[in-house]
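In this supplementary section we document a worked example of the pipeline. Step one takes a protein sequence of length 491 as its only input; no multiple sequence alignment statistics are reported here. Step two produces a three-dimensional model, which step three serialises into structure tokens for compact storage. The input and output of this example are shown verbatim.
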Amino acid sequence: MKTLQTLIQQLNCISISGPIDQEIDALVYDSRLAKPGALFFAIQGTQTDGHQFIPQVIEAGCKAIVCSESIQAPEHIAVVRVKDTQEAMATVASVFYNHPSSQLKLVAVTGTNGKTTVATLLFQLFRSFGHHVGLISTVQNQIDEEIIPATHTTPDSVKLNQLLALMVERGCEYAFMEASSHAIHQRRVAGLKFTGVCFTNITHDHLDYHLTFDNYLKAKKQLFDEVNPDAFALVNKDDRNGMVMLQNTQASRYTYGLKQMADFKARLIEHDFNGMLLEIDNQEAWFRLVGHFNAYNLLCVYGCAFLLGKSREEIITHLSNLGSVRGRFEYIRSSNGIHGIIDYAHTPDALENILSTINQIRTGNEELITVVGCGGNRDSAKRPIMADVASSQSTRAIFTSDNPRNENPEHILDEMQKGVKPLHYKRTLRISDRKEAIKTAVSLAKPGDVILVAGKGHETYQEIQGVRHPFDDKQVLAELFDLFNPNPKQA
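The serialised model returned by step three reads:
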């Protein structure tokens, strides 16, 4: 519990009125959670404006409000007006929870693809070194062995600081987190002290929110522009926007890459469905992850761990023992030799990376059957591109539902099919029922063939008309393998 006066000391306030010596015991931005002793933040969101709920908040007993618009309030209500309420909430949350990020070695990972894999591998790696570690990711949040369900890639600033404070309380020395473009733009990570920030890559995604690629790029870059001077910034030099991230950063600058000269360099020697032989800084090792894109992820983890003080030898030794991340190129195999791969790939670039990897591994005699869809109420521009990638790089593509949300699944499939070239019409099917689509893929597959189920990865639900129905791609595929070919083998 802290006084309002203490909490707002670091804010650039436009105006302050009312009693600021009152004690605050909770931070809320949802009017339904307002209560006596809470500080309410009136957030202007994409769907609703928190300012319109201020009367209900006052009625609920809340006597302190942070807002960005001029409002009329009774004299006994403290009103703090700021330019950006979201940034103010992040700053106040850090103060309220005693600046937890400054008590950890906190590393943020941003980029279109690879964030979850890099953050999770860093978490697993530092756990294997014997440290107490925290993780904030799309799949789940975690403090050592305790799993805390995740609802967003990056939580809101209050939950984020609360989670970091819990990590400090549990004795964590390190914490690794994904920083989504939404979170950076919405100032959820403002006020955090990062030991390091990492960039994986940037491709077409989230244009439904950012509207233009330039806006999307700027959101990612903002993380690097604002990081502390005593932090390190590690970027993928092979990505054409990697060096853009470093243009205005005050942090120490480092690069990694497979193609260009970089501070951390690797070479992919060989790979199959069980892993890859990778040379990192002139040292060869076999890793249990698969694919060219994962070579970049492993190299990012390697570079980050080195910058956090670990030796090259111990990093490679421990990293080579780590397995794949849930929903990221997860591999299962049926008893009669059909290969199944489940991956979260939901952008054109991610899908192309996965398909390219599979095509490099297979001899060419096997069929590659891809089951893929696109989410509803999201960036619709990528739908035809996804379909083009799937149909051009697979021997057969089955278009199906992903999370249609509030859209008609058939409409989404119509938009996807616009991207299929006439040359590839005959190799495509559309089956809106996702389970039926996967079932069809299994029924078409022969021993040695590869089935890729893409788009949902770790998710254990399918969102249809606002309702989340249980659905796990890996579980469904394994059950169908068992149905068609008893006794599937887990690789």
